[in-house]
Amino acid sequence: MLTFFRKYKFFAVVLFVLSAIIITIIYQLMKPKEMLKIYQPADVSEELVDSTLHYVKKYHTIADFSLTNQNGKTITQDDYKDKIYVADFFFTTCQTICPIMTDHMVKIQEALKNDDGVLLLSHTVTPEIDSVAQLKKYALEKGVNDAKWNLVTGDKKEIYDLARKSYLAAKDVPFQENDLVHTENFVLVDKKKRIRGFYDGTDPEAIEKLLADIEILKQED
């Protein structure tokens, strides 16, 4: 009996390895493809959503926009057509969370510097202060790659509507007309203008999760 096993030991090992490979392949084929959630206004805290959208449960997309970047160029939805992008809201004179958020955007920019399919978009919430010249100065200080990352200013109401009605990333300031408080949220947007994730822009671990989720999103058709 021992002689028999010694004789066929090699074949047994090969058979075992082949079986393991076949089982792994079958498992991978049957394993559901990982997908990111598609966020709707109803999925988000009401304080971050305009009251007209609190009960919207499907078909939410980012509205069309026309803003001006750090180079004085008009930036519209067409500049992000068929692109994945990360959006946030900030202002250049902020001394609290914005510097951390910007540093993390720089990290994302570096991680994706060779990926033309992913872009960045930062909106100022103080357009009356953040002129094109101010944004350009800030961009140069922070090492913004103009081909990858737009810092945009423009009409205050348009920016605020985008924050609360599209990106769901800012809070109202009670009793103050046309004012809001931006959050630390980075918003992941897919090629169909849908929100696919929210991430704490001040948290290094959340940034790693964002980068991982971008890779998942890139696998979608």
Strand content: 15-25%
Q: What pattern of helices and strands is seen along the backbone?
A: HHEEEHEHEHEEEEH
Number of strands: 9
If you average the pLDDT, what whole number results? 88
Portion of residues within helices: 25-40%
Report on the biggest sheet.
5 strands, mixed
Q: Which shape, going by the Cα principal axes? A: globular
Helical/strand content category? alpha/beta
Tally of individual helices: 6
Strand line-up across the major sheet: 5-4-3-8-9
> What separation lies between the terminal Cα atoms?
56 Å
Spans of at least 5 consecutive residues with low confidence: none
**Rg of Cα set:** 23 Å
Describe the structure.
The chain crosses the membrane at residues 12-30. Keywords: Copper, Membrane, Transmembrane, Transmembrane helix. This protein is α/β, with parallel strands linked by helices and 221 residues long. Helix content is 36%, strand content 19%. It has six helices and nine strands; from the N terminus they run ααβββαβαβαββββα. The chain has helices at residues 2-7, 9-30, 98-111, 132-142, 156-166, 204-218, and strands at residues 66-68, 74-76, 84-90, 118-124, 149-152, 170-172, 180-182, 185-189, 195-200. The strands form three sheets. A five-stranded mixed sheet has the order 5-4-3-8-9. Strands 1-2 form a two-stranded antiparallel ribbon. Strands 6-7 form a two-stranded antiparallel ribbon. β6 and β7 form a beta hairpin. The N and C termini lie far apart (56 Å). The mean pLDDT is 88.
